[in-house]
Amino acid sequence: MTVTSDRPGRQHGLLSAGWLPAAPVLALVGTLLGTRWTTQAWADCPLGNDAAARSGLLLLTVPAVWLLTTALLIALQFLLRAKTGPDEHLFRWVVVLAAAVVLTLLYRAGMGWPEAIEPGGPCMQGWPLFPFGSKPGPGPQVY
Questions:
Q1: N or C, which terminus of the chain has less Cβ within 10 Å?
Q2: Number of Cα atoms under 13 Å in the Cβ half of residue 69
Q3: Rounded distance, CA 30 to CA 11, Å?
Q4: Concatenated DSSP letters of the chain
Q5: Are 26 and 40 a contacting pair, CB within 8 Å?
């Protein structure tokens, strides 16, 4: 690890943690927004809106997605810190923020949207337990 200083008393190094707290905060905001978007999309679905499905989402999915998103953003921060110079601080922030937005959109896309059993009919599915997983309940009838 190389430590340099552009001002007395200030050090730049690979392990300096000045901006690392941004990863868990951005991950939390993205996870909460994605979860809110998911619950709104599934609000009209009886199976997607019951207490058991909501508990599974809040107790299992949200912490897992938050931990995974945080880990990915921290890894990206360390990679950017190693590959960019100390003068590219704004660039690093923009890249990490864009990555947080992309991960939030991936989370939301992975949770899917309800499909009615018949056009205009009720939905009897639930959201997946983890993004891009299978949905509980019957799917649309294909004849």
A1: C
A2: 32
A3: 31
A4: ---EEEETTEEE-TT--SSTTHHHHHHHHHHHHHHHHHHHHTTT-TTTTSHHHHHHIIIIIHHHHHHHHHHHHHHHHHHHHHHS-TT-HHHHHHHHHHHHHHHHHHHHHHT-----SSTTS-------SSTTSPPSS------
A5: no
CA atoms within 13 A on the CB side of 94: 4
- Residue with the larger pLDDT of the pair 67 and 88: 67
Tens digits of residue pLDDT in 82-112: 887 777 878 888 999 999 999 999 999 999 8
Q: Are 44 and 123 in contact (CB under 8 A)?
A: yes
Strands 10-12 and 4-7: antiparallel
| Pick from 67, 53, 140: nearest CA to 107 | 67
Of 37, 9, 56, 15, the residue nearest 105 (C-alpha): 37
